[in-house]
C-alpha cells in the first residue's frame, strides 16, 4: 500500500514509518523538520522536507498517489499552543483541513489522524475516560487537535473518505526529545543519564496514561485495514504517577539524586487514563509493552 505520513520525521511519526515499512508498505514522509529530525527517518522512506501548508505538498500528493494519508504533523506542544494559539490553530486545525481537502481532491481512501486523549476531554468527570466523555479541552492545543478531528470527519461525511482517529495517551519512548516540554519520561531520562537532578511539577501524585510508542505504531498499522469510521482511545487504561516514573527511571539508570519538587503546572489535567475497550473491539489492539519494559527500552536508546 502507498502511504504518505505527515510528521514522519517526528517522535511518533518516525516509529509509524518504521512499522509501515516493516509491514511491506511503500512510504513517503512530508515533514518541515520544525521539531522533527532527518536522522529519525528510515532510509527506505522518501523524505520531502515540505510544510503541509506549502503549495508543493499538493504536487507530492498528486505524484505519490497515496491510498492512505497518516497525518501526524502538528504543533505538538501544549505550552507553545498556549503562548501562540493562532499559530497552533493554523498548524493543527488549518493543516488538517489542508490534508483533508487534498485527500478528497486526489482520491485518497483513508485518513489516519493522531488526536490527543490527554487534552481533548479536559478534566475528566469519570475515569477511565471513554470516547463518549464530553469534549471540553482546557488548552489551545487540545482545542486545535479536536478541530482537526472535525475536518477529518467532514471529509468522511461529504466525500466518503474513511478515517481512523486515534486519541493517544501520553506517548514515551526512543526519539522523544528530552529538551521538549511534553515528555516527562524523555526529560527525566536525559537528566538522569547526565547525572542531574529532576524537578517534579507539584507533588508528583498526578496520574496520567503513559503509552509506549511502539504500541502506538502498531495501532496505526492495524488502522490501515480496520475501523473505517472510528474514533478510538489509545492508551494503557492505567494511570501512573510522576513519582512512580521517577522511581522506575532511578532504578534503571542508577541515578539516585532525590528529585526537587516545583510548582504544579498551570492548567494541567491532574488525573486521566483512557478506556481503550473500543480499540480492542474495533482494531484488535491492546498495549503489549509494560511500563517497566518500555522504560528500559527508552533508557537504552538514550544512552550515549
Ligand atoms: P513531534 O513534534 O515529534 O512530531 C511532529 C512532527 O510534525 C515533527 O516532525 C514536525 O517537524 C512536523 N511538523 C510540524 N509542523 C509541520 C508542518 N506545518 N508541516 C510539516 N511538518 C510539520 O511530536 P510527536 O509527539 O511525535 O506528535 C506527533 C503527533 O501525535 C502530533 O499530531 C501530536 O499532536 C500527536 N500526539 C502526541 C502525543 C504525545 O504524547 N507525544 C499525544 C497525543 C497526540
Give the helix proportion (percent range).
25-40%
Number of strands: 13
The largest sheet is: 7 strands, parallel
Number of domains: 2
CATH class group of the largest domain: Alpha Beta
Which descriptor suits the 3D outline? Answer: globular
Distance between the termini: 36 Å
Widest beta sheet: strand line-up: 3-2-1-4-5-6-11
Beta content: 15-25%
Provide the succession of SSEs: EHEEHEHHEHEEHEEEHEEHEHH
Rg from Cα:
18 Å
Number of DSSP helical runs: 10
**Which compounds are bound in this model?**
nicotinamide-adenine-dinucleotide
Give a quick precis of the structure.
About 40% of the residues lie in helices and about 15% in strands.
What does this structure look like?
The protein contains ten helices and 13 strands. With 304 residues, it is α/β, with parallel strands linked by helices. The chain has two domains: 2-171 and 210-235, Rossmann fold (3-Layer(aba) Sandwich); 173-207 and 238-273 and 289-302, UDP-galactose 4-epimerase, domain 1. The protein has a seven-stranded parallel beta sheet with strand order 3-2-1-4-5-6-11, sandwiched between helices. It has a two-stranded parallel ribbon with strand order 7-10. The longest helix is centred in the N-terminal third of the chain and has 21 residues, at 85-105. It is globular, with a radius of gyration of 18 Å. Nicotinamide-adenine-dinucleotide binds next to helix 1, helix 4, strand 5 and strand 7.
